[in-house]
Amino acid sequence: MLRIQQLKSGSFLFRPFSRSLASLDASKVKITNVREHSVPKPNDQLVFGKTFTDHMLAIEWTAEKGWGVPEIQPYGPLTLDPSACVFHYGFELFEGLKAYKTSDNKITMFRPDMNMARMNKSAARICLPKFDSEELIKLMGKLIQQDKHLIPEGQGYSLYVRPTLIGTTPALGVSTPDRALLFVITSPVGPYYKTGFKAVRLEATDYATRAWPGGVGDKKLGANYAPCILPQLQAASRGYQQNLWLFGPEKNITEVGTMNVFFAFKNSATGKKELVTAPLDGTILEGVTRDSILTLARERLDPKEWEINERYFSINEVAEKAAKGELLEAFGAGTAAVVSPIKEVGWQGKDIQVPLLPGEQSGALTKQIAQWISEIQYGKVQHGNWSRVVAELD
Ligand SMILES: *Cc1c(COP(=O)(O)O)cnc(C)c1O
């Protein structure tokens, strides 16, 4: 026994396990510029997520050394071993957030600390390395600074930022990755709805399940998204743009497509209104937009008029309330569209009608909330540290 221990401790002399692992350090960044900056596309030619900027950020991690030197380099293909664990076992997670050119000529991001915290939670869940959130925010700032001429200007225009973390261990054994790559790419984007809102039709979906208790539906893992495309095609074949995901025998409403979802009701007996969204019980993605809407609604809606609730509610409750004239509005909430008004929900062969303002594509509250968030994102209104300056326009 003693000898084995001695041997083990002896081997420590030759294998420097005790050396501390390098943490993510933005000050070490190495920048390789493109030879020639590209020319920005005209705003009207921007299609969501199809155009990318000149540079990307890439940082390698190994279990042996920790985080390597962050590199800002020309945008281009990755070279990976075909045995890399990302290709076989889905060691992949991502984030989505936006950078804005504000009215006072700064480049800001909206609540990036929330995205970084969520990214670290996703990483922990699939045994990929965690990192210092503030360092990655600084690095994203440096990347954006490099491509600042490509951030489109104007209401609804922004730079979509896509941080991604993958396991790159070149081995087929299913185990903890000992190599990883964190990269960030950015894409100039326009408003989700080019000509104002366009309310959507949803199919309440109980024939497929997006997420379940004890699962990973509350993490932004790539593995959660591919299985949702087939149900979306099935809904589309019946004329619906997105799935309204239901869960369990109660048929509780969870999310819509890849967005959180809000419904507004009015109690016809008391006259009191309610804004409701599903609670964070592990089956719901913890949306930054969702959190921002709840916060603003609690701060700004009159509590004598409105109740703001995170609670379970079912498609049957929505159908019943709609029949009594108590359904006021419904909308999806996420970074890409901010809010996305809903006009109809298909359920059991019928369409539940969601009221819209006369001649418009949204309800009054939906419109109000979209405006509140946009004012903060474009720097017209301050809200604590929600809008963070990450780069200068000089
Ligand atoms: C990203 C995402 C959301 C919205 O999150 P935001 O932080 O508001 O962009 C909601 N649901 C799912 C399933 C998502 O992937």
Report on the architecture of this protein.
This protein has 394 residues and is α+β, with helices and mostly antiparallel strands. It has two domains: 2-189, D-amino Acid Aminotransferase, Chain A, domain 1; 200-362, D-amino Acid Aminotransferase, subunit A, domain 2 (D-amino Acid Aminotransferase, Chain A, domain 2), CATH 3.20.10. Helices cover 23% and strands 29% of the residues. The protein has helices at 2-14, 85-89, 112-125, 133-146, 229-237, 288-300, 315-323, 364-377, and strands at residues 30-31, 55-62, 66-67, 71-74, 92-94, 97-101, 106-110, 158-167, 179-189, 200-205, 242-247, 252-256, 259-266, 273-277, 306-310, 327-334, 338-347, 350-353, 387-392. The longest helix is centred in the N-terminal third of the chain and has 14 residues, at 112-125. The model is unreliable at 1-15 (pLDDT under 50). Bound molecules: pyridoxal-5'-phosphate.
